[in-house]
């Protein structure tokens, strides 16, 4: 049995003015299983320390940078030091931070995409394996109860043989030139910080991950058309991708950040030879199953009996929305569970959290989509062993 005490967390990034850092902290705290004990919250040393103090952390554990955090925490008794690090920085900082944390003996839970490039993701996989530490990736939408129910239905054969997969992620928050002034937009549109893609790297990769998770199939090849709609941008803000999955399944993926009026419209449709299903993130408690020449079925979160695979992700009674924060918290809770198990010296992760293989597939998807868009060749095989580019760090 692992020692019964809270899991201690450190954070890199997510300081004052950063939206996603607070989301991570709320999600981590929701189950009272995790305690934030330290952090290096900004690349600005003074801002980093001030951010930690604003969170009422011990001033001695508000560090000016993550290297000093790793040194300071490693010097503490095992019962006091952090056990894992949440990395919530812009993409270009993920790899170095994750590598240093793992090599220093700390587990890592990282925002997606895991790295700046596929080359870095391949290198990080080696670091993870050599470190003997846990690595998790916050593909948030996999934490929703009805997403798990959808996966369960597919696995049980309720849809029959899958024929077609359609997934889209539509937003409108970057539809205007002036939208670029926000901190959240600035780094996502900067190739030096975001990488080779904005829209596909930021939200398209979520859609691809969701489609693979629910269907249980892998994307094997793709054909892409990306667009930079707003003048002056250096990265894509809109795009469409034709997909080929294993078992000869065809699919489409649409992603946009210039679709005026759209908020956070992530939608998944799977079509089998017996039935189809439909799930939409903006109505997360609802899963619709449609059958040939028969009435549709609407399943609602919390209604009726269900398997533990689904009900373990439910937190509130029926009629209360299982939202984004709750889905995020499910990942944190399950990662904390795995950390507790690791205290006994084993890395047997009994709870599912997206990991390094998801990191590899995510970066492979991003780079092959961009490569396909730039190429005259129609179809590109999606591989995780090497990058289609030679000049990306």
UniProtKB/TrEMBL annotation:
Entry-linked InterPro entries: Gfo/Idh/MocA-like_OxRdtase_N (IPR000683), Gfo/Idh/MocA_oxidoreduct (IPR051317), GFO_IDH_MocA-like_dom (IPR055170), NAD(P)-bd_dom_sf (IPR036291)
GO molecular function per UniProt: nucleotide binding
Superkingdom per UniProt: Bacteria
Name of this protein: Gfo/Idh/MocA family oxidoreductase
Occurrences of domain GFO/IDH/MocA-like oxidoreductase (ranges): 148-277
Tagged with keyword Signal: yes
Domain called Gfo/Idh/MocA-like oxidoreductase N-terminal: residue spans: 8-137
Organism in which the protein naturally occurs: Alteromonas sediminis
Keyword Signal: yes
Keyword vocabulary terms for this entry: Signal
């Amino acid at each position: 049995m692992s020692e019964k005490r809270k899991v201690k967390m450190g954070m890199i990034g997510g300081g004052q003015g950063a939206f996603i850092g607070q989301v991570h902290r709320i999600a981590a705290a929701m189950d009272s299983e995790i305690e934030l004990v330290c952090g290096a919250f900004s690349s600005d040393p003074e801002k980093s320390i001030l951010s930690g103090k604003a969170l009422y952390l011990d001033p001695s554990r508000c560090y000016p940078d993550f290297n000093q955090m790793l040194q300071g925490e490693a010097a503490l008794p095992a019962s006091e030091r952090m056990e894992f690090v949440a990395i919530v920085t812009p993409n270009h900082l993920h790899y170095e931070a994750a590598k240093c944390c793992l090599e220093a003996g700390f587990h890592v839970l990282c925002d997606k995409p895991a790295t700046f490039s596929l080359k870095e993701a391949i290198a990080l996989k080696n670091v993870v394996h050599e470190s003997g530490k846990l690595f998790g990736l916050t593909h948030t939408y996999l934490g929703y109860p009805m997403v798990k129910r959808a996966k369960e239905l597919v696995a049980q054969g309720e849809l029959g043989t899958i024929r077609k997969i359609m997934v889209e992620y539509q937003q409108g928050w970057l539809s205007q030139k002036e939208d670029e002034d926000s901190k959240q937009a600035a780094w996502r549109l900067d190739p030096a910080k975001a990488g080779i893609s904005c829209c596909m790297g930021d939200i398209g990769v979520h859609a691809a991950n969701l489609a693979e998770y629910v269907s249980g199939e892998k994307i094997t090849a793709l054909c892409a058309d990306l667009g930079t709609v707003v003048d002056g941008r250096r990265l894509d803000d809109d795009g469409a991708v034709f997909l080929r999955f294993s078992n000869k399944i065809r699919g489409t993926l649409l992603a946009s950040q210039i679709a005026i009026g759209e908020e956070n419209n992530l939608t998944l449709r799977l079509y089998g030879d017996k039935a189809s299903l439909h799930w939409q993130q903006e109505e997360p408690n609802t899963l619709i199953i449609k059958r040939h020449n028969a009435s549709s079925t609407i399943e609602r979160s919390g209604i009726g009996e269900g398997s533990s695979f689904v009900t373990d992700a439910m937190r509130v009674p029926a009629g209360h929305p299982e939202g984004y924060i709750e889905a995020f918290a499910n990942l944190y809770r399950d990662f904390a569970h795995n950390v507790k198990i690791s205290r006994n010296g084993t890395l047997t992760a009994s709870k599912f959290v997206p990991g390094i293989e998801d990191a590899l597939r995510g970066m492979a998807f991003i780079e092959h989509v961009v490569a396909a868009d730039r190429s005259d060749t129609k179809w590109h095989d999606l591989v995780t062993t090497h990058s289609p580019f030679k000049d990306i760090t």
